[in-house]
């Protein structure tokens, strides 16, 4: 899903950090900002004032103000009208204390949001670019529990009632950290990684366990037992171990694969749920095994090589 953001929401969320003040055009606050290339291909989200390659957010810095101030009255009026009547522009920000009346009048006339800030234009552009990259990044919500195990982001999935929350509780008691329970929001804010976080930040520290109800993880296990977000490194899918599946299980290697989320392939391991199996220990072992694979080590290949060498030696 590609989220959208209105100009009013952008100003409200960045008003304090960027010292933004409304000047005019507040009636156009419902103009939307979409992810790059979603509606206007090739158009940058934020940049200095540009009449040729227009930006969704046009920033008027000191140099741009000097340019506008050096124009003749007719040329300046045409440039100001051209700036504020552009349908692809969602917000104009002026960096400086002095706001000319013709800019404010044009903003109200064309219902284009117009703000000012005391911060330098490069800081405004860098901060807004970083904020919009995160806010407009593609995202998806999945059902599961997201846990940090040994510094690795592990997404635990499985059918309802299979024991995901109980497993999370056991992992918490072993010193690991919870990031999200039930509804995990996955965000692709980086070309190579998915970031996972709780869909509702206000409910971050609560874990629902059948039979126990709601558990306050932060109060019960301490401040360090909760983390706000983490890159997802691999997925563990819980499945019930039936007799039919037991016959097909490969005892020499883990049942591994991958799952594509938001265009990224994430490694996935299947753990079977059955009476007597300590899933918390299995999750820790799967995490350690994943770390070894990241280092280029494969225990099964090493085992087969040593086993083949041993058989060959005995046959000689």
TL;DR?
By secondary structure, this protein is of the alpha/beta class. It contains ten helices and 17 strands. Strands 14-11-10-8-9-15-17-16 form an eight-stranded mixed sheet. Strands 2-7-6-5-4 form a five-stranded mixed sheet.
Can you put this structure into words, describing what you see?
- The protein is α/β, with parallel strands linked by helices and about 325 residues long.
- The chain has 2 domains: about 5-135, HprK N-terminal domain-like (Udp-n-acetylmuramoylalanyl-d-glutamate--2,6- Diaminopimelate Ligase, Chain: A, domain 1), CATH 3.40.1390.20; about 140-300, P-loop containing nucleotide triphosphate hydrolases (Rossmann fold).
- The chain is about 35% helix and about 30% strand.
- The chain has 10 helices and 17 strands.
- The chain has helices at about 5-20, 60-70, 75-85, 100-110, 120-135, 165-175, 215-220, 245-250, 280-295, 300-315, and strands at about 5, 20-25, 30-35, 45-50, 55-60, 90-95, 115, 140-150, 150-160, 175-185, 195-200, 205-210, 215, 230, 235-240, 255-260, 265-275.
- It has an 8-stranded mixed beta sheet with strand order 14-11-10-8-9-15-17-16. The protein has a 5-stranded mixed beta sheet with strand order 2-7-6-5-4. A two-stranded antiparallel ribbon has the order 1-3.
- Helix 3 (about 75-85) packs parallel to helix 4.
- It is elongated and about 95 Å long.
């Amino acid at each position: 899903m590609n989220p959208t953001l209105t100009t009013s929401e952008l100003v409200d969320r960045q008003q304090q950090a960027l010292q933004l003040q409304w000047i005019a055009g507040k009636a156009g606050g419902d103009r939307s900002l979409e992810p790059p290339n979603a509606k206007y291909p090739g158009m940058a989200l934020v940049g200095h004032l540009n009449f040729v390659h227009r930006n969704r957010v046009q920033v008027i810095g000191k140099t741009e103000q000097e340019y506008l101030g050096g124009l003749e009255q007719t040329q300046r009026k045409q440039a100001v009208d051209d700036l504020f009547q552009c349908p692809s522009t969602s917000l104009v920000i002026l960096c400086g204390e002095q706001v000319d009346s013709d800019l404010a009048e044009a903003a109200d006339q064309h219902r284009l949001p117009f703000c000012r800030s005391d911060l330098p234009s490069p800081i405004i552009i860098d901060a807004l670019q970083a904020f919009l990259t995160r806010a407009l990044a593609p995202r998806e919500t999945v059902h599961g529990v997201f846990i940090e195990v040994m510094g690795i982001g592990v997404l635990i999935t499985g059918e309802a009632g299979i024991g995901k929350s109980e497993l999370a509780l056991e992992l918490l008691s072993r010193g690991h950290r919870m990031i999200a329970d039930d509804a995990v929001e996955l965000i692709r804010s980086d070309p190579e990684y998915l970031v996972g976080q709780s869909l509702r930040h206000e409910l971050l520290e609560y874990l629902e366990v059948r039979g126990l109800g709601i558990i306050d993880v932060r109060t019960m296990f301490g401040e360090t037992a909760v983390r706000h977000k983490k890159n997802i490194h691999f997925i563990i899918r819980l499945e019930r171990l039936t007799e039919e599946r037991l016959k097909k299980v490969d005892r020499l290697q883990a049942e591994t694969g991958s799952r594509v989320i938001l265009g990224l392939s994430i490694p996935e391991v299947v753990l079977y749920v059955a009476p007597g199996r300590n899933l918390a220990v299995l999750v820790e072992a799967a995490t350690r095994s994943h770390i070894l694979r990241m280092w280029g080590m494969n225990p099964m290949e090493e085992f087969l090589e040593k086993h083949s060498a041993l058989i060959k030696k005995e046959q000689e």
